[in-house]
Design a protein that fits this description.
Blueprint: E1 9-16, H1 21-24, E2 31-35, E3 38-45, H2 48-60, E4 65-73
Antiparallel strand pairs: 1-3, 1-4, 2-3
């Protein structure tokens, strides 16, 4: 079986409250921006375990998760799911 590394996907995680700079270090490598009572944490997520770790970090900090939005891949591809062609065993 051949494993192909997929490009990292970009995500925006939004939590309630406007987090201060102290929290930015908890999400290293991600952009943290605040406004209107919410904080957006945006950046590349390399795989599902990385995303799970970010969600765990939000829970450990006692933050309330508002939304998780896939934005696309690092190379600019849209985040829309695509169907994959299936192979048949015969004609």
């Amino acid at each position: 079986m051949l494993w192909v590394r997929m490009p990292a996907r970009r995500y925006r995680l939004v939590v309630e409250g406007e987090l201060g700079p102290r929290y930015a270090s908890a999400f290293e490598g991600m952009a943290v921006s605040t406004g209107e009572g919410m904080t957006a944490i945006t950046g590349s997520v390399i795989d599902s375990s990385h995303l799970s770790g970010l969600l765990d970090q939000i829970a450990r900090l006692g933050l309330t998760l508002y939304s998780v939005t896939p934005l696309g891949t690092e190379n600019g591809e849209a985040a829309e799911p695509r169907s994959q062609p299936t192979q048949s065993d015969g004609p």
